[in-house]
Structures are given as structure tokens and as C-alpha cells.
Specification:
about 30% helix, 7-stranded mixed β-sheet, Phosphoribosyl-aminoimidazole Synthetase, Chain A, domain 2, 6-stranded mixed β-sheet, 60s Ribosomal Protein L30, Chain: A, homodimer
Chain lengths: ~300, ~300
């Protein structure tokens, strides 16, 4: 009988599937970052990511079809942004329940294609099948200049930890259906500040910072008072609510200072320092409002 | 309320989504062939395809997890073969019901990775989410030399129509869970015989020949007596049973003659002539065992 997937969890699953990865000379980074990185040409890497959205888990039927389509593509674009890249081509699979109005499907596509146009993504194919509940899977290609690629595993002790916007209360407020992936922010950063590590926040700040620390083999101290919160969000929601889709990144101290003094705000960007990377095991210490340090769980939002 | 997707059907849906395709200078072929074709370098195109499999629709829980994993990747590899190409990199999304044994998931991956190794496919990432029923989506990249690319739309009057093996009774016999995608056959053909059109047979011979005729703007006459049948298969099952995953291709008469006289059989390949392409509307005429011609429906297997 063994373990059920509920006990193993998503990251247990990801660890257990790494062994099935088949080596290939074109693979620069495989399973475990926001997107796979493949060799493309002398100057660029190709990026490939995929995300599955299931009705009742990632959205409810009362969300508008346009929003659901928007979210399905936006999650994928966010993964490409997290590598420092630009999205290029998408294929879309739909599992559609019998009796679903054709109008609902058109509006799904309208939501996807409006966002695709905004980010120059070409929808080049897909698959449509019957399913009991609505399922949307998108696979998205992207590109990044070799010099601009950012992984999760480059954070070093002394680096400053940033996020690109307020966190928490994203599911309740509906923001998870309408967010714009942080492509412009990511490109501004890779072109001007070369982050040492970057990823998007889909599992809460604690969960995803935990992944970044594990990949980089470092620890972190974050300040409760610095964590930016969405209206209605509490600390727990920011740490482990999930689906914020802001970027989490680290910069060496000198470049962090330079970013803080830059005109990023004039471009409408917001880069908020929330803590620092330290030597040691991949643990997060939270400095509370009284200045007391406590280790927090990096488990983040649980998919199972 | 408008049409439901049941009335529109899969190909109605595909037609209706073409308008959402965003133009891009890298896209050679978008929605509507077995895989999308993108520019890669001076010599090669990149191919991208995706397929979604849903429990209860494409497989039942009593199929072994290894077989289900095998099938999920095999369908995608078949799409790449149908363009004349070789598969390279895959990303795998799993929607997993709560309580599914972790062992089932390992065996799914084992089925996929055994096939991946056989065809030099590298599994480079994916997504795992919770779902009420088991859903597997794979997106697969491939490559093809520009000179070897074959589309659905190149068939000309006078071309001979071939299939690569027996058809029908695939679901009942379980063959849809164990088939090997026809990559070797496709490569042999593109390297030696340059098919004028090619695709894989997933919706029955009538259904998929119908798509090929529509794309090529030609008609066809097929001979009942020539259609190769699997054990237990009747004509209807071959014409519209679905999930055979043999290749359907066309060759100009001279090259067809040359293929018939070749040593293909010694390589274990079987290329069976089933009819000819004719001028006229995209209709299939079936010559029955009495030599009587009748027009048959090209609707094939219905997904909705």
C-alpha cells in the first residue's frame, strides 16, 4: 500500500521523480526550478514550463471564464519571468465537462489571448478532451539571454532579499485571477541589477523562500515589519497563503543599495527589502515586531 | 445559451480558437497539424505538441499505471513522428486524486520514463496538483530537419495513401495502452521517400483521412479490401474506432511504387496501400468488396 500522495506532498513527489530525468546534452537545468532551461543558440537559452489548473482547486465555476483563462496563462508567464526570460509560444490543453456552454470556452480563450497579446505570446496549438471537471493545462516556451538567466540557487550570505509587491489574501480577494505576471520587473532587474537568485511566489513567502534557501544552501532572516501585506492580509496569509505570483529575488548588498537608490519607483515598479541571506542551514528566522527571532516553518501552502 | 461543446465538437472548437492565434515571425505552422512548427536554426525546425489524458475517458483505473504513463507519452511522441521529427524534451503535469497511492504515481513515471529512454526524450519538468480524477498532460518538444518536415496539407491527386499497420479494435484489445509510436517508420519515410502528407491516426482512418483531405483540398478513394484490420476488428472500428496511432501518409505514384519494391519489410516495417488521392471535394469514397463506390462520413471518432 505504501504512502499515499497526501503524505508524500508535492515536493516529496518532485524529489521522487528526479530520478526519472533522462540526461541530455541540451538540458542546462531540468526538474526543480521555475522552468526548464535548454540550450538554444550561442546567445540564448530556451525555457519551458507547464502548469495545470483544476476547477474546484485553483478556481471555482463562479469565477468568470475570462479570468480563469487569464490566470492559466499568467501562472506560466510568471514562471518564465522568474528565470529572467520572455515568454514566446504556448500550447493549451482543455479538459471540458459535457454540457459546458461553448460561450464559456470562447471566453476562456479570450482571457488567455488578451494576456498573450500583452506579452507577445503566440498560441500555437493544443488539445481538447472530455473531462468530468474543467481542467486547463498550458505549456509555455520562453527565451532568455544566457547572461540574464537567473536560477533559484545563486543566493549568497549577505545578499538582500526582495519581493516585488504586497502578499497575502490573494485567494479571498480574487487577485489570484487577475494578477499581471512580473515580466517587466524581471527584465528590468536582469538587465540592470543581475539578481543572484529569483523565483515566483506561488506557495507563500515562507514556502518559496524555503525552496530558494534549499537550492542555494543558505539560511535567511526576514523582518515581520518589512513584509508588505495586501489589504485584509495577515502575516500568516503572506507567509503561507499561496498564489501571490510576486517575484522573490536576492541581490548582493552593493547592488541592493544601488536598486534602493534607483528610479525603479518612477517606472511603477516596487522592490521591497524583506530580509537578508545568512550562512547556515536552509531555515528561515523571522524577526517579529518586538525584535525577537524565531524559526518558522518553510512548508508554505500545501497542494495535497 | 448558445451551443454547448457537445454540439460544437472538437474540430468546431479547434476552428473557433484559430482566431486567437497571435501572429509571430517564429511560427511556421500553428494550430491544426499534429504539432506546431517553429523556426529553430538554419537547418532545423522545432516541434511542439501537447496531449491530455483523463481517467474514465482515455483509460480506466484498472489499466496498470505503467501502461497509462506509457500511453500518455506515446500519444505525444506519435504527434512528433507524424511531422517527420524526433522527440527531445517533455514536461509532465499530473492532476492527482487525494488518496492515490504514491506507488501508483511512481509506476506512472516508470511507464513514461521507460518509453522516454527508448526514444531519447528527456523529462525536464512538470507540475503536480490535486484533482478529483486523475489527469495527465504532457507537452513534448521535438526537432525536424527543414527538408524532412511533412505536413497534413501536401497530398496531391494521384498520390497513393498508406498506413503503417492494422487498424481497429484498439480500445477493447488494450493496444491503445501499449502501442509504440511510429518514429522509426516516419524517419525511414522522410529520409528515403519524402511523403507528400502525413499524420497519425487517433480518430479512426475515416476521421483522420478526412482531416488530411480537408487540409490538402483533395478527395480520396479507399478500398475496403485493402484496409488492414487488427484481430477482432471490423471495418467500422478501423474507420472510426480511434486511438490506433498508426501513421497515415501519401506518396506520389512513382515513389509509392519504389517503396512497394523496397526492403522496408526486412526492417520490420509494414507500409500498406489503402487507396488513392483524387481531385475534388474533401470526401472519402469507399470501394466495397463488390467494387461499389459509396461516400462515407469522415467524422471518425467523436471526443464529445
Amino acid at each position: 500500500m505504501g504512502k499515499s500522495i497526501d503524505r508524500l506532498g508535492e515536493f516529496g513527489l518532485i524529489d521522487s521523480i528526479r530520478k526519472y530525468q533522462y540526461p541530455s546534452s541540451r538540458v542546462v537545468e531540468g526538474i526543480g526550478d521555475d522552468a526548464a532551461v535548454l540550450k538554444l543558440d550561442a546567445r540564448r537559452y530556451q525555457l519551458l514550463t507547464t502548469d495545470m489548473l483544476v476547477e474546484g482547486v485553483h478556481f471555482l465555476r463562479d469565477a468568470s471564464a475570462r479570468q480563469v483563462g487569464h490566470k492559466a496563462l499568467a501562472c506560466n508567464i510568471s514562471d518564465i519571468a522568474a528565470m529572467g526570460g520572455l515568454p514566446t509560444h504556448a500550447v493549451i490543453s482543455l479538459g471540458l465537462p459535457s454540457g459546458l456552454p461553448a460561450r464559456y470556452v470562447s471566453q476562456l480563450y479570450e482571457g488567455m489571448s488578451a494576456l498573450a497579446r500583452k506579452f507577445d505570446v503566440s498560441i500555437v496549438g493544443g488539445d481538447t478532451v472530455r473531462a468530468d471537471t474543467l481542467v486547463i493545462n498550458i505549456a509555455l516556451l520562453g527565451e532568455v539571454e544566457k547572461k540574464h538567466l537567473v536560477l533559484r540557487r545563486g543566493a549568497c550570505p549577505g545578499d538582500v532579499i526582495f519581493v516585488t509587491g504586497p502578499l497575502g489574501n490573494t485567494l479571498h480577494s480574487g487577485r489570484h485571477l487577475t494578477f499581471l505576471p512580473r515580466v517587466k520587473e524581471a527584465r528590468f532587474l536582469v538587465e540592470n541589477y543581475k539578481p543572484s537568485a529569483m523565483m515566483d511566489i506561488s506557495d507563500g513567502l515562507a514556502g518559496d523562500l524555503g525552496h530558494l534557501l534549499k537550492a542555494s544552501r543558505v539560511g535567511a532572516v526576514i523582518d515581520e515589519i518589512r513584509i508588505p501585506l495586501n489589504p485584509g492580509a495577515g502575516l500568516n496569509s503572506a507567509l503561507s497563503g499561496g498564489e501571490d505570483f510576486e517575484l522573490l529575488f536576492t541581490l548582493p548588498a552593493a547592488r541592493a543599495h544601488s536598486l534602493a537608490c534607483s528610479a525603479a519607483g518612477k517606472k511603477g515598479f516596487s522592490f521591497i527589502q524583506v530580509g537578508v541571506i545568512i550562512k547556515g542551514p536552509a531555515r528561515i528566522s523571522l524577526r517579529d515586531r518586538q525584535g525577537v527571532l524565531k524559526t518558522i516553518s518553510a512548508s508554505g501552502y500545501k497542494h495535497f
